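Quick one: structure for this chain?
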Amino acid sequence: AVVSTQSTGKLANSEYKLRHDRVAAALHWGLCKDYGFGTTTPWYSHYAEKVLENDRVKILWDFIVQCDNRVEACKPEIVVLNKCTREALIIDVAVPRDRSVSDRELEKIQKYQE
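Got it. Here's what it folds into:
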């Protein structure tokens, strides 16, 4: 069978997006568990709510982050706002192939620098 490279690219992108979203949802589930939000489903069937909040933290899922300075990347998968320390944890997920892990890590770090 002949497969065009264009359709292969689309398939690869959709498979990447699916893996990416599953990893991000698993991280969200773990944060929910760590910060005392109900985790009644197993991690692999977790549905991430857009906003979860309690007296300690606010967890945002797939939100645009407003910054004082212009930042090209402003929509990480997860942001954890710690109310006690007044700090934010920004989680931007990448699921690269094994040989490009360090490149993607550096790219993600540089993306959020001000």
